Amino acid sequence: MQLKIYFDEKPVYLCDELSEELKEILHHPDAVFIDEFSTPAINSLLHEIKKEDFHAGVILSDDLEKLRKSFFKHFTTIEAAGGIVQNDKKELLFIYRLDKWDLPKGKVEENEEIEVAAAREIEEETGLKDIILKKKIGETYHTYNAYGKHYLKTTHWFYFTSDSHQKLQPQLEENITLIKWIKTKDIKTPMETTYASIKDIMHCFFDAP
């Protein structure tokens, strides 16, 4: 098993075995491999990530959960939730924010269930109300810096369905300037201008049984 955590668009993998994908990544001259998860080792990796030529990082441990907890302790953690929404025409809902195509998502409030948070964020960011929860798709992880702190955000993704006749209203205060239903055959267009983590969760969505 593995977790992929994005630092901007650069990934760090926490894993309990080396898959063929990870072995291929480690062939890159600017990939960093760590087979321990001591604090000095993790600090060393976090230092390497800041370098412009850093490609990817892989930390291997036979106890993935222990590794995850140890790695996450270096950050202020945040839980978020969002959704992939498909309408009765099989179109998918995308928002356009800060020059990127994205999916509606946001922070989970205190004592709020993550499925409820995902639905709430979809409604707040797009105006879409009548949505039906189908299943969970997975999680994505990314880091960012703000106000002098290092944050690691876990976003829980859910699949919802909806009809195509509701009025959409972008949440302007969240810098959302456009909302669009996009046909599956045209999915390449938003994927060319989106975040790596969004590409990952969309792959999970299309690969899911």
Provide a quick synopsis of the model.
By secondary structure, the chain is of the alpha/beta class. It has six helices and eleven strands. It is globular.
What is the secondary structure topology, with strand pairs?
Elements: E1 2-7, E2 10-15, H1 20-25, E3 31-34, H2 39-49, E4 56-60, H3 64-72, E5 76-87, E6 91-97, E7 100-102, E8 105-107, H4 114-126, E9 131-146, E10 149-162, E11 176-183, H5 188-191, H6 196-207
Parallel strand pairs: 1-9, 2-4, 3-4, 5-10
Antiparallel strand pairs: 1-2, 5-8, 6-7, 6-11, 9-10
Question: How is this structure best described in words?
Answer:
This protein is α/β, with parallel strands linked by helices and about 210 residues long. The protein folds into 2 domains: about 1-70, no CATH class; about 80-205, Nucleoside Triphosphate Pyrophosphohydrolase, CATH 3.90.79. About 25% of the residues lie in helices and about 40% in strands. The chain has 6 helices and 11 strands. It has helices at about 20-25, 40-50, 65-70, 115-125, 190, 195-205, and strands spanning about 1-5, 10-15, 30-35, 55-60, 75-85, 90-95, 100, 105, 130-145, 150-160, 175-185. It is globular.
